[in-house]
Write a structure and sequence with these properties.
This protein is α/β, with parallel strands linked by helices. It is 43% helix and 19% strand. The protein is built from eleven helices and eleven strands. A seven-stranded mixed sheet has the order 3-2-1-4-5-10-11, with helices on both faces. It has a four-stranded parallel sheet with strand order 7-8-6-9, with helices on both faces. Strand 10 and strand 11 form a beta hairpin. The protein is elongated and about 70 Å long.
């Protein structure tokens, strides 16, 4: 049972809804009579002692904002035992007895190391637009990012149709094709290319040429960056089809923007649960969602397992795309 103070931090790539989650952690802890500190700029800020006590006003006017008011940064030093020791010393200096970490696999792995080496209670919240954290159906920011991608694809379809072009849309996802698969299905793309599923570019190009010969005006191909380069794919497709082909790399636009209703509500639910759990003495868990309900996942199971792409999405794409 924690009676003194906890801390909250965001780490890794930013995702819409992180502010909502951090806000819920802060206000829940304060409501429980517990001090709460914010660690600015992720693990780098932990080592640099960028640790500040927060109050309810510190997190006002945030729930509708994308990004993370706490900031995030890469930190090579934290990957060393000495670096993590420095981070733990700084936490102890402020009387921090537990830590809530909002981030993806790498961030949660860092938390698991702190727990193993320093014994500090850790509760993780999955914050990544890739929706690739094992054990949860949902990660903070994935819904907003997918809607951003769908909106962009809808706009690109208009210009592709006007010029009878093939439009290749590259979305984020180094090892996970969730964002490409869901945005591709939702936007009615003709082809979706993801790291988890094999594809035959020659077969795709032959089908495209045949459809254009029958009068088709455009083709949308959504590709996850981890499957292949959008620019490289564009060159191959244009060479093989002889059809004007353009590529649009959505890039970091997918990380930004005001979070969707789903990301605001779910992130808030996770933040409240995380604060209550760590105050009550829960340790080494990640909170996520399973079939619409908040569930706890063992932290070490979460970081040591790879989440597969939902086979139902793959099956649905095979029918609809």
């Amino acid at each position: 049972m924690i009676t003194g103070a906890i801390a909250v931090m965001t780490s890794g790539g930013d995702s819409p809804g992180m502010n909502a989650a951090a806000r819920a952690v802060v206000r829940t802890a304060i409501a429980e009579g517990i001090k709460v500190f914010g660690i600015y700029n992720g693990y780098k800020g932990m080592l640099a002692d960028e640790i500040v006590e927060l109050n309810s006003r510190s997190v006002s006017d945030l729930i509708q904002r994308g990004g993370t008011f706490l900031g995030t940064a890469r930190c090579k030093e934290f990957k060393t035992v000495e670096g993590r020791r420095q981070g733990l010393d700084n936490l102890q200096k402020h009387g921090i007895e537990g830590l809530v970490i909002i981030g993806g696999d790498g961030s949660l792995t860092g938390g698991s190391m702190l727990s193993k080496e320093g014994g500090i209670p850790i509760v993780g919240l999955p914050g990544t637009i890739d929706n690739d954290v094992w054990g949860t159906d949902y990660t903070i920011g994935c819904d907003t990012a997918a809607n951003t991608a769908v909106d962009a694809i809808n706009k690109l379809r208009d210009t592709a149709s006007a010029h009878r072009r093939i439009m290749i849309v590259e979305v984020m996802g180094h090892t996970s094709g969730w964002l490409a698969m869901t945005s591709g299905i939702a936007s009615g793309a003709e082809y979706i290319i993801v790291p988890e599923v094999k594809y035959d570019i020659d077969e795709i190009c032959e089908e495209i040429v045949e459809s254009y010969n029958k009068g088709r005006r455009y083709t949308i191909i959504v590709v996850a960056e981890g499957a292949c380069s959008g620019v490289g794919l564009k060159n191959v497709v244009q060479e093989k089809t002889k059809i004007d082909t353009r590529v649009s790399i959505l890039g970091h636009i997918q990380r930004g923007g005001s979070p969707s209703l789903e990301d605001r509500i779910k992130a808030s639910m996770l933040g409240e649960r995380a604060a209550l759990a760590i105050i009550s003495g829960v340790n080494d868990v990640v909170f996520g969602f399973d079939e619409g309900k908040v569930v706890s996942i063992n932290l070490f199971d979460s970081v040591n397992n790879k989440k597969p792409l939902d086979p139902e999405l793959v099956r649905l794409a095979s029918v609809l795309v």
